[in-house]
Amino acid sequence: MQLLDFITIAVFAAGVVIMGLSFSGKSRNMKSFFAAGGAVPWPMSGLSLFMGFFSAGTFVVWGSIAYTSGWVSVAIQWTMALAGFAVGLFIAPRWHKTGALTAAEYITHRLGTRTQKIYTYLFLFVSLFTTGAFLYPVAKIVEVSTGLPLNACILLLGCFCILYVTVGGLWAVMSTDVLQFVILTAAVLIVVPMSFARIEGVTEFIRSAPDGFFQLTNEDYTLGFIIAFGIYNAIFLGGNWAYVQRYTSVASRSSSRNVGLLFGGLYVVSAVLWMLPPMIYRLIDPSLDSIGAEGAYLLMCREVLPVGLLGLMLGGMVFATASSLNATLNISSGVVTNDIFRRLRPTSSDKLLIRVARISTVLFGLMAIGVALLIPKMGGIVNVVISVAALTGVPLYLPIIWSLFSRRQTGTSVITATLSSLGVNALFKFVMPSAGLTLNRAEEMILGVTFPAVILLSFECYYRLRKAEAAGYGEYEVWERKNETERQNETLTRSSDEDNAFSRKVIGIGIASTGALITLLGLIAPTGRLLVIGIGLLLILFGLKIRRHKAVNKK
Fold it and tell me: What is the DSSP string of 259-298?
């Protein structure tokens, strides 16, 4: 990387911080800090969901699979598109109907305080380690690309995320997500044509690709794995507490449905665009081993991007990956504030609650930084943490999703399903291999998906045979109907309308400024000048259009 790449990253980082800080006065109460006042336009929420689903795996893990196995990586990510469609059609509208501010609030009213406490502590514990695991590989990308010390990268990135999430709340998270989406998309649209040009076109790519490069499955990633992984993604996307925010922060059930459908549609296209660069790099350098393949995406970018644009691409990759960390920080502080502190101090003012929310964001972020700093000293802990996260996804989220649609599931049944599934998954992951019984990737995924489903189905059949309904379900229905009536009778307040207009203004300025930066970089680019300038000018026009768009709120 050259000096201009570092300058580009610095300018981009400063812009994101300024964008987040601009929302410091928009978090007036709990609903505005954690649900953006229930007034987020669904395209914005959908893009934020899309970016929040990112992780370093998009570029490192899936990029490595794209390099070694080709189109299998696209098939794996298409399961995420199908998951988005399923969530949009069925799960997202149901979450919106509950009227809950957080998933924990829903659990309290539907399954009881004891159940809520257990899930809250499980969620916070798992989130702490997964947030640290997200932060570590992002810092690793920066370390490899810039040469900065790893610990310094962890501290800088961690504090960066804490800063604008603490100050701006969900408005800041969602607005910066939209800007990051635009920047990353622009960078990819530059990388892909230049990558094809490097190997003399699409025809040459198809002709020279290794045998089996365009198959959808292989020995490691079988059809069974693909199906189980798709189910896992639907449950994770539909039940993760950070993603639930995206469905409940919009104005209507139809809007929440559109959030999921937009996510699915974007993944249909982006799965191909993202995976093409590492697949093309296979033709340029087929000698990378499994470890080296993890850097195939960045190596392709280094191969073709002009000076300055590599910094923009790296910045987009880093901050897009950090979106998942930001979403987790916001929802974790929401759980601490809304579902722990407010229960202890039910008469707390909005001002006090916002202060607690910001303090809890900082504290949780600092603990996540601590986990990330310890990872290198724990030898292999990254793989363990990511495996635990994958194994806990369905046991944690499927029982709660099931309870959305069932009148019979109780606090006892969902806790039993979660804890027994976690125990079985941990047994087969960490204990049974020492006894000679090791599950392959597909078997591990299938076990993680089917075991909790079998437990819940057994409880459902048992309660149905007894013609039993969950105790307190009648009271829950009254609470839900009350929320629905209030939402139906509620019109967007002037402050919510102003927040929407302000967010649109900030996003428009950010996109136009990014377009201007790309245009300037295109003027000095030795190759691909017309392509880069064209993308930059399009972003300027798009940003100005958003900036001038009249605020219109639709239910």
Answer: HHHHHHHHHHHHHHHHHHHHHHHHHH-TT--TTGGGGHHH
Task: Report the C-alpha gap between 400 and 418 in whole angstroms.
Answer: 10
Among 77-81, 234-238, 335-339, the range scoring the smallest mean pLDDT is 335-339
On whether the CB atoms of residues 332 and 127 are closer than 8 A, the answer is: yes
In degrees to the nearest 10, what's the CA dihedral of 123, 128, 133, 134? 80
pLDDT band at 284 (very low <50, low <70, confident <90, very high): very high
* DSSP code at position 212: T
Count other C-beta atoms under 10 Å from residue 418's C-beta.
25
Q: Which of 348, 75, 376, 387 is nearest to 212 (CA)?
A: 75
Q: Interior CA angle at 192 toward 184 and 59, to 5°?
A: 55
Contacts of 3 (CB under 8 A, 6+ apart): none
Q: What pLDDT is recorded for position 355?
A: 80
Question: Could you identify the residue written with the tokens 């000698």?
Answer: 287
Give the amino acid at 368. Answer: A
> Taking the model in full, what pTM does it have?
0.83
Residues 321 and 135 sit within 8 Å (Cβ to Cβ): no
SS3 helix, strand, coil % of the chain, rounded to 5?
A: 80, 0, 20
User: Do 132 and 366 meet the contact criterion of CB atoms below 8 Å apart?
Assistant: no
φ/ψ bin of 99: left (φ > 0), alpha (ψ from -120 to 50), beta (otherwise): left
Mean pLDDT of all residues in 256-278: 93
139-161 pLDDT, tens digit per residue, is: 777 777 777 888 888 888 888 77
- The size of the chain, in residues, is 555
Per-residue pLDDT tens digits for 359-380: 887 888 888 888 888 876 655 4
Q: Are 72 and 278 in contact (CB under 8 A)?
A: no
What does the block give as tokens for 230? Answer: 């798709």
